[in-house]
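Fold these two proteins, one after the other.
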Amino acid sequence: MAVTRAVPAGAISSGTAPAPLAPAAVVALSAYFVVVWGSGFVASRVALQYAAPFSYIGVRYGIAFFVALLAFGLRARWPTTPLQWAHVAVAGLLSHAGYLGGSHYAQRWGLSAGITALVLALQPLLTAIVVSRWLHERLGAWQKVGVGVGLAGVALVVGTRVSPDAASLASLLAVVWALACVTAGTLYQRQFCADVDLRAAVCVHFAATALVMLPLGVAVEGFAIDWNASLVLALGYHVVLGSIGAYSILHLLMRRGQATGVTSLLYLTPPVATLVEWAVFGVAPTAAMWVGMAIACIGVAMVTVNAGRFARGTIVEERS
C-alpha cells in the first residue's frame, strides 16, 4: 500500500459533523484498515520479485489515479491557483514518490517487510522532533523520553536482523530516505496545503507520482516488469484494497470522530507486516525482534500521546 502522510482533517469536512459510528462498525473497519495497511508491505515484496521499484510504482499510481478520479475525484474541490497546484504536487511527490521509491528499494535490497514497516512507523516521532526543533512547538518531558524509547526499540530490531555488508547498508539508507521523505511531505502538507480538499489532494498526488516514476522507470530500470498473475494480484491489492478501500475507510473513520483511534492503529502495522511476511515468505521473527518492536511502538505512542499539538486535525494516507 502507499505508505502514509498527514493531511488536514479540515480539508475533508464541512457542515454539520456526522453521527459517530457504532462500536462494532468501528472495530470491523479498524481491523480491515490495520490488516490491509500492514499486509501492503508484504504485497510490495511480492510485486518486487517481478517488477523494478520505479516501474511498479509508476504503473500502480497511474492506475490508482484513474480509479480515484472516478471513485471520488470528480466530486472534489480542486486547487484554484497554479501555486496551490504546485504545492499539492510537491507534497505528493515527497509523500509517495520519494517515500515509496526508498521503501521499495529497501525491500528490493534485502530489508524485510516487518523492519521496513517498523522504521517507517517512526514518522510521527520524527515529525514531532522537527516540529519541536524548528517550528517552536515544545516536546514535553514524556515525549522526550518517548523519542529515546522509540529509537532504542528500532535499534534493537535492526541490530539483530541487519548484517554489516554493502547490501544491508544500502537498504538501511533507502528506508531512512523514505522516512525523511514522508516526514517532509507531512510537514510540507501542513505548511502549504492545509485547506486543500483531501479527495483532490489524493488525485493530484497519484498523478504527480505516476508522471515522475514512469519516466524514471524507463530511464533507470528499462521499465523492467514481468507481467504474471502474482504481479497483477499485488497490483490489484494495492490499488483496490489499499488506495481505494483503505483510503475510503480512513476517510469515514476520520469524519465520524475517530482521529485519535486511527492514529493509534498505525502502531499495529509493523506486527501485522511481520506476521504476514512470516506466513507468506517464512521469515520467522525472533524474540528480540518482538521485544524491540513493542518497545519502539511504545516510544512512538509516548511521543504522540499529545498528538493534537503536533498534528492538529491530521489524518494519514497510505504508506506501504
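Now the second one:
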Amino acid sequence: MPPPRSKREKNSKPPKPSQKKASKSARRPFAKSRKVAAKSSDGRIGKLFEGLVAVQARLRAPGGCPWDREQTHSSLRTYLVEEAYEVLDAIEAGNSKELAEELGDLLLQVLFHADLARETGAFDISDVIAGIHDKMVRRHPHVFGNVKAETAGEVLKNWAQLKAKEKQATPPKGEASQNPAPSALEGVPRNIPALLEAYQMTRRAAQVGFDWERVEGIFEKLGEETTELRAALAASNRRATEEEVGDILFSVVNLARFLGLDPEVTLKHSNLKFKERFQEMEREASRSGKRLSDLSKEKLEQLWVAAKIKASAKLPLEFKS
C-alpha cells in the first residue's frame, strides 16, 4: 500500500473499489443513497472483512509490497491522523460516497496496526474486535442489563463510573492494586491538539459532577480571565500574558462544551467564514488593480463588511453571523 497523500495528490493513488468523483461543497446534507439497507443479513460483511484482512496480511508477507513491509507503528502515526481528518472533511462536505471511501482508508489503518501486532505475537484483529465488542456491552448496562438511563447525560455519567471501576480493577503495569482510583482525566492523550485536549478534559470532569451550574458562570470566568490578561499586559509580563491567554482559550472551550458544541467544529466553521471573506477582499482589491497591503485601514474595513455580506449569503442560514 503506498503512503497516504494529501487530498490534492490522492487521485494518484492506485484504483480502489470506490473512486472519488463528487466535488466537495461546504456543509451540504448527505446525499440520500438508494441503497439504504445495510445488507448485513446475507453474510457479506464477514466475508468482505476477512478478505480485507487477508489483503493486508498479503501486503506485509514476503514478496508483498516493499513499502508496506517497511512500516512500523511509529511510521504510520502520521497517516492515521491524516486519514481521520480526511473522514472529517468528508463529513463536512456531506458526501456519503466520499465518506464511505475515507472510512475505508481509516479502517485500513486499524487493520495495518493490528497486523503489525500479530506479527510480534502481541495481539491480532480478533483481539481488537473482541475487546471493543465486550467493552460496548459492558459500558451499556442500560441496554444489555438492568441499569436505568433515560437521558444522554445519565449514559455518560454511567460510562465514566464504569470506566473508573475498570481502571481500578486493572491498575497500570507496575502499580499496586491497592492504589487509589485513577483520575477521571486518565486516558486523555497529551499528544492530541490542545483544543481537543481541553475539550476532553472538561467533558470528563463534567461527567463526575465538576461543572458549571449555569452558563453565566462561564461568562463571569471569561471576564475574570480578561481582567487578569489586561493586568499582565500592563505589567509587560510576557510569561503571565501567555498564561492568561491560555486561560481564556480554555474557558472558551469550556463554554462550547457546556453549550453542547464541539469547539473544534465551531472553530472550523469560523475559519471557513474568515477564509471566504478574506479571499473576497483580495479579489475585490485585485479588480481595482491593488493589493490589500496597499489599502488604508478604513478601506480594508469597508471591503471586510462587503465581503462578509457576500460570503454569508453563500452559507446555510444556521452558519451565518
